[in-house]
Amino acid sequence: MTGLRIRQSHWTRWTQRARWPAGALALLWLAACTVGPDYVRPGVDTPQAWRTTPDPGWRVAEPGHAPLQPDWWRTFGIARLDDLEQQALDGNQTLRAASAHYEQAQATLASVASTQAPQVALNGGLARERVSADRPQTNYATPNTSTVQNDVTAGIGASYDIDLFGRIRREVEASTASAEQASDDLANARLVVTTDLATAYFALRELDAEIDVLDRSTVLQQKALAFVTAQHDSGAVSGLDVLQQQSELDATRTQRQLLVNQRAQFDTAIAALIGVPAPQFTIAPAVELPPIPVLPTGMPSDLLQRRPDIASAERAMASANASIGVARAAYFPDLTLSPQLGWESTRFASLFGAPALAWSIGASAGEVLFDGGKRAAGVAFARAGYVAAEANYRQTVLDAFQQVQRAVTGLAVLDDAHARAHEGVVDAQHLLSLANDRYAGGLTAFINVLDAEQQLLTAQRTEVQIAGDQAALVVQLAKALGGGWRPDAARQNGGVGQTAQAAPITHDVTPAAASPDNPRM
């Protein structure tokens, strides 16, 4: 029995010694718990290849946060466009606002993350006070007296939320995802501004080329009108021919004015994008249609990783998922440690002496027993937010595939259309050359030469319009791919685009062998 009692005594002492470590381990285990679902990015259906492309080299796309091609527009090799894009990056107010929102998100993350650390505060006080003699008594045998005395205090206190069930960790997770989303939003704003600027610039230059064609057409129609008028004066034609030629001239001048108005709209749009008041900005007209670069169309789906709007939607989904954990943590109790150390005395001289020392250490815990369904509503709200974020993510991915496919298909069609339009220009040039030869040999009237010249200008205008559409669609594809491409990739992969540069529409179409001053019948 003695041995048994000794063993029981040893067991009792051991359990008493182990009680505090066991309690500490239990707290550590609870602190490692995190309620709410862990985030897993949902899968999306990914096409194996674009239509019209032979390259099947695809894998599952995962939105990433790598930096975009910073200066994709330099692929066009236009110095004026490069200058405008840099001005937009420096002065665009939308980009400035997006940058400020990103800084706000970073500050919010720092604020939320700070709650993981203990909050330490210094406090002190100085007061001179009179204690009432008529205060409630704590001892009826000892009467109260009134006293006047100083009260000097100094101390340091701390407060630390143990975060047993991961509420703070989920809040940090949500804020981290939100900060990354703000970064992606900033990248997307940069992409939108640069592509909008490039689109406006190419539209403006396409209009410059069209206006140039109409100006030369106007010169030819004026010559034709003078020729028909001379024939009418000699009685060779009726006044109807003169009116028809005058009507064509008026229509061409009207078209030119409409194009000038459209050009002014793009001019002011560029001014707003680069942050300059519209009345203080203008771009001088120039016939400057760039060659269309060859773009890789057999791209693996990881190029979609570079789309900042997809990455932003994915981060919004991660933040919404973490918010579910924050809402579910409200069902569990909070535990806060709050140690205090301080001194209190009636004199400064004895404030930090041993008798003035005061301290406390303890913890507070709280749990809501009934809230009328408030916490359940919070969880339901968070879950619905995640469903909405997931739907937005999937729709963003679908929109991305749709935009890339539309651009790829459009470029393939426009490439063929441009080739045919260029053939039409060559044919019209041959027709004009033949008309000049026949006019020089007296085999045809001068009006036929003017008609051939007008057909050439019409063909050239069609070619200009297609080239403008190609440039705009290339910019749209760059936007759909998330910021452009590397020139070496464009050369190494099969692509869609104009492989041969269009003949510059700057040649003189005035016939060398004839003039309206010396018409031949």
TrEMBL record:
It is a lipid-anchor. Its main location: membrane. SUPFAM superfamilies: Outer membrane efflux proteins (OEP). One of its GO terms (cellular component) is plasma membrane. Keywords: Lipoprotein, Membrane, Palmitate, Transmembrane, Transmembrane beta strand. It is found in: Cell membrane. Residues 489-521 are annotated as: Disordered. One of its GO terms (molecular function) is efflux transmembrane transporter activity. It holds the Pfam family OEP. InterPro entries: MdtP/NodT-like, OMP_efflux. Belongs to the outer membrane factor (OMF) (TC 1.B.17) family. This is Efflux transporter, outer membrane factor (OMF) lipoprotein, NodT family. The lineage of its organism: Bacteria, Pseudomonadati, Pseudomonadota, Betaproteobacteria, Burkholderiales.
